[in-house]
Amino acid sequence: MTTEPATTPNEPTAIDGQPELDEYVANNDVVLADFYADWCGPCQMLEPTVETIAAETDAAVAKVDVDANQQLAAAYGVRGVPTLVLFADGEQAEELVGVQNESQLRTLVERYSE
User: Fold this and answer.
1) Domain residues of the chain, as ranges?
2) What DSSP assignment string belongs to 22-37?
3) Which among 61, 62, 72, 91 counts the fewest CB atoms within 10 Å?
4) Which residues contact residue 65 at a Cβ distance below 8 angstroms, ignoring those fewer than 6 apart?
5) What is each CA distance from 4 to 13, 22, 53, in whole angstroms?
6) Could you tell me if 92 and 85 are in contact, meaning their C-beta atoms sit under 8 angstroms apart?
7) pLDDT value of residue 5
8) Residue 85 three-state SS
9) Phi and psi dihedrals of 102, rounded to 5?
10) Which residue of the set 13, 29, 40, 58 is catalytic?
């Protein structure tokens, strides 16, 4: 396995399963995991905001389809979508449920990016 360069991905990365999420969190200082579903209207509303956070902040953004990853969603106690879980230094630090605006997410990411 090759180690990725120390650059944060600037677009959301699809995650499939716990090992993939664990590796993604381990390889990035701050990770915003977006637990979503394709049929979820609020998730679709949140999508452009999540893409902006990935492009313009130090956070790596993980996209987790809860329908394809039910066990992973259950492991993080995701009961509704969208749910955003923020990881900092390999640990779960925050959880937000529902649509968040860009400034809320920027503030959250910046709090852990220093």
Assistant:
1) 13-112
2) HHHHHH-SEEEEEEE-
3) 91
4) 14, 36, 37, 38
5) 14, 15, 21
6) yes
7) 46
8) strand
9) -60, -40
10) 40
- Which pair of tokens denotes residue 79? 């009961």
The whole-angstrom separation of Cα 23 and Cα 10 is: 17
pLDDT tens digits, 52-71: 999 999 999 999 999 999 99
User: Which residue among 30, 32, 43, 88 is the active-site one?
Assistant: 43
- The whole-number pLDDT of residue 6 equals 54
Question: CATH code for 13-112?
Answer: 3.40.30.10
Q: CA 35 to CA 63: how far, in whole Å?
A: 6
What single DSSP character describes residue 113? -
One-letter amino acid identity for 44?
Q
Query: Residue 74: CB partners within 8 Å, gap ≥ 6?
Result: none
Give yes or no: 43 in active site.
yes
